[in-house]
Write a structure and sequence with these properties.
mainly alpha; 75% helix; globular
């Protein structure tokens, strides 16, 4: 066998594209959302309810709440898998329906389940790390978001937020890099292993560092806007981002014959 032939576990070929392509992903995500609004709203409502549940349960436990919402962002690519399938059907000129979403979740694809499990572990590790940091730094004095804000402007809280953001970014960066296109790739191609999909995602980020950073910022800002609206806007934001992520995958990963 020639050394030039790709190995089964090698990363797939990726493209280098312009950073402003992220705006097109959002536009296409909105288009797909409007093509199948009830499916998108169903996903968005389910995740907004879950976010509201986290807010309700953790309101008096801010040390855990901050990490829980961050962890929520890490596992979101798994939760919107059905929307990737909807976008694929629209791209193929077919009419998607709830059967499209059901077909994805009822296949019990072991690869997607494994990657979802890895995302859940990453999210859980961050929740524990975040809670431990806030509790240790504040000596357990913070219980509500109001107390957190009050502590932040006090002399004792100097540096906490900055360190929390830096630590969170350091832990989230490799997760983001390994998950940018992984879940839609696994859903779209049955011949790709989890390892190969993650390697392809890392290669896509390494090839497009500015674009990837911009996209991560867009996702974070829009999600925070959704959270800031007491989950109301999250009902629309999350499905649009889910559809947009499918188009990110199609742009970044070369579809080999």
């Amino acid at each position: 066998m020639s050394d030039s032939m790709p190995h089964a576990d090698d990363a797939l070929h990726v493209r280098r594209i312009h950073s402003l392509r992220t705006l097109r992903w959002l536009a296409l995500g909105w288009r797909d959302f409007m093509e199948a609004p009830f499916i998108g709203l169903g996903h968005g409502l389910a995740m907004a309810v879950f976010g509201g549940f986290l807010l309700y349960v953790g309101w008096d436990r801010f040390w855990a709440l901050a990490g829980a919402f961050s962890g929520f962002l890490l596992v979101a690519p798994m939760l919107v898998t059905g929307l990737y399938a909807v976008s694929r059907e629209i791209n193929l000129g077919r009419e998607p329906g709830w059967r499209t979403v059901r077909a994805v979740w009822t296949t019990w694809d072991g690869r997607m389940m494994l990657f979802g499990f890895l995302l859940m572990i990453a999210g859980s590790v961050w929740v524990v790390t975040s809670a431990s940091l806030i509790t240790w730094w504040s000596q357990g004095a913070i219980h509500t978001p109001t107390e957190f804000l009050r502590y932040m402007v006090s002399p004792e809280g100097t540096g906490l937020f900055e360190f929390w953001v830096i630590l969170g970014g350091a832990m989230a960066a490799p997760v983001f890099a390994s998950s940018l296109v992984t879940m839609p790739l696994l859903m779209d191609r049955k011949d790709v292993s989890v390892r190969r999909a993650m390697m392809t995602s890392v290669r896509a980020v390494a090839t497009n560092p500015v674009l990837s950073s911009l996209w991560a910022g867009i996702v974070m800002v829009l999600t925070l806007v959704g959270f800031g609206s007491v989950m109301f806007l999250l009902i629309v934001v999350l499905p649009v981002l889910g559809h947009a992520s499918w188009h990110a995958y199609r742009d970044l990963v070369v579809r080999e014959s």
